[in-house]
Amino acid sequence: MTRMEQYLDEHRGRFEEELCQLLRIPSISADPGCSQDIRRAAQWVADRLGRLGLAAEIIETSGHPLIYAESEPVEAAPTALVYGHYDVQPPDPLDRWISPPFEPQIRDGSIYARGATDDKGQMLTHILSVEAWRATQERLPLNLRFIIEGEEEVGSSALATFLDEHGDRLACDCVVISDGAQFGPGQPAITYGLRGIAYYELRLQGPRRDLHSGSFGGTVTNPANALTRMLAALSDAEGRIQIPGFYDDVVPLSGEERRRLAELPFDEDRFYRQLGVSGGMGEAGYTVLERRWARPTYDINGLTAGYQGDGAKTVIPASAAAKFSFRLVPHQDPEKISRGLEAFLRSLCPPGIQMELVVHHGSPATVVSLDSPYIQAAARAIEAAFGRPPVYTREGGSIPIVTAFHHKLKADTLLLGWGQDDDNAHAPNEKLCLADFHRGIRASARLWEELGRLGKDSRQASRPPAS
Ligand code: BES
Ligand code: ZN
The domain containing residue 390 runs over which residues? Predict the structure, then answer.
């Protein structure tokens, strides 16, 4: 066993305790009542990076703070930028949690808490691996920069502004992100594509007050009825989106990529069984993996209208609202989608209803090239830590800043998810398997070595000159 491995083994318990500390902070970015906790989480991350001997600072923004840190320069070595997020999704519905969301508990080899996999646990692997390097080696084998944000779950607008104004501080050869999943238990993955997203809220206002549905039913437009009709009109029964022009920019999947996805060992029946459903639906002519990773979708995320209490109440609600989003694929532009959506909804809006469409956030999809020495280095690190080479996957989720990194930093992106699909991200009983947490730390430690070995400018050296 190497000194590094021994160190990682000896400190497992403390690493888990440190993760618990961070998980106890309810840093819910969408909740304005959590601003103190957001700050505490940012401070925790900055202190933790500072204790590694990195120059770490909290950067104030118009939104939630960013944390930036960098290691001392190592000449002739590449620079990796680690990105992660300390914010989490709201924990509701609270009554479905077996243990409270911000009181981490270890059960059956997993740690349960909001943020365990998304993304506190995964982000921490890259911090703890640096500790192991510091403790067992003379120096780091590469230049490391960290940028950790608190708004990933609400669209990353503060980081996008920072990137526009101070992108030079984030200059790097590759970006390292662990904020996703492996292909399955025992089968690690490198992700080369993420879907984009466009998120909206539709508010419909009808009569100036709630009305008795007996006295007034049949005369006014019920906003809840109008809402369900309008929402239903956005897609057909298969899930194909009906907004004119929605598919115009969608790049069809190549035959080659479809073949590669079909080769992944994926059992559709097992997938549905694990979700507790007898079957599913989606665009005809596409496999489940294609529909999850590489086709656009439309989902209602929340509905508010009318009486929600016990028993029955005969009422026409004065207003109704819905939150919904589209997942986007490469080349779809969220702003163009918003324009098409607004025009379509206006054409569907019935008399007696005033509609307001709020655009919450939007970010385009990304696909990164697998033809990169950094990807190969990551594959070697993963194989060493997980005992198996990674497969190459796309993901259906979104990490809004990745596309901006890609365009501004012109660096390769390594999406190395240590989680599992059944980690319950965004749902009650979120968890991270502790074995995956520790394998993630090992893979990260090995990644620094593999990247360091590539030396500087290996990207340019390995590629033909741009034409
Ligand atoms: N970790 C996820 C992204 C993700 C999800 C990667 C599934 C791989 C598989 C990230 O924290 C996330 O949830 N992003 C949001 C972004 C949105 C709120 C702008 C998402 O995808 O819903
Ligand atoms: Zn998330």
Answer: 3-194+365-452
